[in-house]
Amino acid sequence: AQSVTQPDIHITVSEGASLELRCNYSYGATPYLFWYVQSPGQGLQLLLKYFSGDTLVQGIKGFEAEFKRSQSSFNLRKPSVHWSDAAEYFCAVGSQTGANNLFFGTGTRLTVIP
Amino acid sequence: DVKVTQSSRYLVKRTGEKVFLECVQDMDHENMFWYRQDPGLGLRLIYFSYDVKMKEKGDIPEGYSVSREKKERFSLILESASTNQTSMYLCASSFLAGNHYEQYFGPGTRLTVT
After folding, report:
1. Is A105 within 8 Å of chain B by CB?
2. What is the SS3 assignment for A47?
3. ∠ at Cα A51 (A46, A52), nearest 5°?
4. Within 13 A of A10's CA, how many CA atoms are on the CB side?
5. Beta strands at B109-113 and A64-68: parallel, antiparallel or unpaired
6. B37 beta partners
């Protein structure tokens, strides 16, 4: 069965510092992997996705993520965080069955301090 | 741009009431989903639909039902609302982007049952 673990519930970083959010997945085949961001009171916005090819993927807002099959990880990174990045971040793995539903991690809340 | 809209951003209902949450997407997507989001639990799938009048149970369907009479509209129904259904409800639709599905989310409905 698919599952996603985000081990960090809450992370605080200073503005301008680098960021890495961790995501580990469990899936029997090549996964489809996603990172979504949710600003307060809003729905989820797709940041980036991996489904094949280059293991380093670029997304919107300056984010990138690296797929590491050997570690079953898909960590999200940003070299310099902006105050507007404060939000909740969700990693998700996509099913390859006809259902195409996503399995989400429990989320990591990011606080950015000046 | 994909647009997924939900009928209400905030809703307050009494225990035992019948509650309808409406979701509309304007991109002719085949698949639509209802999730609930709770702190520390991430997003959990309630129901999804891959075609008009078709529905499948997700991980937590108890206490909910759905209706999809038209392709663009997917309704979530709480037959008799209870306080443990107080939550954020997120609707999504998805389409096939090459060899994988991408989900797009609405802004969410925060439901309080008193």
Report:
1. yes
2. strand
3. 140
4. 5
5. unpaired
6. B43, B88
Of A42, A100, A106, the CB nearest to B94: A100
State the CB neighbour count (10 A cutoff) for residue A3: 12
Q: Three-state SS for A38?
A: strand
Q: How far apart are CA B20 and CA A2, in angstroms?
A: 30
Cα–Cα dist A65/A83, whole Å: 20
Which whole number is the average pLDDT over B29-34?
A: 93
Please judge whether A94 and B101 are an interchain contact, meaning their C-beta atoms are less than 8 angstroms apart: yes
Residue A35: its chain B contacts at CB < 8 A?
none
Summarize pLDDT for A10-34 with one digit per residue, the tens: 999 999 999 999 999 998 777 889 9
What confidence tens digit (pLDDT) does each residue in B65-76 have? 999 999 999 999
Q: How many CA atoms lie within 13 A of B15 on its CB side?
A: 4
> Which residues does chain A have within 8 Å of residue B35's beta carbon, measured at their own beta carbons?
104
- The encoded tokens of residue B86 equal 């107080």
CA atoms within 13 A on the CB side of A67: 21
Give CA separation, B26 vs A109, A111, B14, B81, B84, in Å: 31, 34, 31, 29, 31
SS3 B41: coil
Question: Which residue from B87, B76, B85, B80 is spatially nearest to B20, judged by alpha carbons?
Answer: B76
